[in-house]
Amino acid sequence: MLWLVLLFFLVATLYIRILRNFDYWKKKNVPFEKPVPIFGNFLNVALGRQQVGAAIRQIYNKFDESVPYFGIYIFHQPFLVIRNKELAKKILIKDFNVFQNRPLYYNAKIDPMAANALFILRGDVWRALRNKLSPIYTSGKMKLMMPLMKEVTDQMENYLNTLNNQEIDVRDLANRYSIDIICSCAFGINSQSLKFKDSEIKSMANKMLDLRSLKRSFAIGAYFFCPLMVELFRLSFLDTTCSNFFINVFKSSYEERQKLQVRRNDFIDLLHTLKTEESNNDLFKFDDFKMSAQALVFFTAGSETTVGTLSFCLYELAMNLDIQNELRNEIRQNLNSDGTISYEALFEMTYLDLIIKETLRKYPLTHLLMRYAEKDYTFEETGLHLEKGTPVIISMTSFHYDERYFPDPDKFDPERFRGDKSKELQYVYLPFGDGPRKCIGDRFALMSMKIAVSMFIKNFEVTPNERTEIPVKQSKTAFFIIPDSGSIFLNIKRIE
């Protein structure tokens, strides 16, 4: 009987604490959505009925333009969600010293790979690693990697030539292309995913960050919103077996490279250079594992960004043949005499750039940016005071579909980024984030996407068919933005 009383007392205490926390935004006079016990405003997300981004966007749209922010509760934790462009700028750039870190779970004992990832690292250690890695992603270094990418796009073109006038799953194609690109540029190997659909590397890569897996989505969500679950179940951000597989691939490739003294101007070579240039005073020093961790992050982040953007881009081009034809004309006008595209031409094609930007607006890989206050902070515009540790959300999908900034947001309209319009959309168009913690690999991602789209549309036309889902139904359980079916079917036809 005594244990029942103790259990009742424990449950009652937790319930009262949670309810008391639900007064947080009311006491601060911040507009908020009424939460439900235990789940806060995330009941439908927890039950798999709604995307994370859709849940936040639904609340976001309830307020008018005079509301600069609102409060939500993710389980019992209060989060501030930004609705104002200038406040987003303050958080990402002007007051970055206060909001420099992400409130993601960090524990080197539970997940040493994640603990050494630039995405999760904090403070001085993050800054030290960022400074080390930045030279890898300069335009000059990216230009040197372009021949490696061209080899893969040539392989994709050869593969597509065998599928003329056939239906293909462009998401599967983009997946195989991205794996070959990243394996070549990050691990220095030819994964041959375009040639062999069921290769071991492709299988491991897809399982490592399986966006449709409930287990993986739960683990990733816990790192963002519920650290207690990570502690209780000792969750890893990526599938451990698969990440260990790729760490071993990297180590083997690295050791072989040093033995044979071969250079490819890829990620392995660049990391090796950084390691040899280290001094004893460096705050972040590379060892074999830490180098492998950077390659693994490079692999997962670059691969998933390319898969989503390339497949959704081809889908939108199939839905908008006038845009597709105009893009094809631009690409063909910028070809070299041998039918290839130079690095300079790739980034000078205006319409291609507009199309990629619009694809990333409608389909950013993730839904939100997260920061937390390193110290007590007051918004001088409104007087709102945030205590140290308060997490803040900038909802990319909410901003990207806000009619104040993007009229008729469901329409695929590349012209909305033409000319000076892009400047007006700064701090509300955030596919790679902004400020000092902007995605470090955005140049690499854009290059891999642009070279693939250029090759594809240069000689092939994509059109919808009876299996094409219009519009594409998004997964409600995946933490990122992916089709619920996992596929996007289109017809492909070679044209001269």
UniProtKB/TrEMBL annotation:
PROSITE patterns: CYTOCHROME_P450 (PS00086). It is a peripheral membrane protein. Signal peptide: none annotated. Its cofactor is heme. Gene3D superfamilies: Cytochrome P450. GO terms for cellular component: endoplasmic reticulum membrane. One of its GO terms (molecular function) is metal ion binding. Belongs to the cytochrome P450 family. This is Cytochrome P450. It comes from Cryptolaemus montrouzieri.
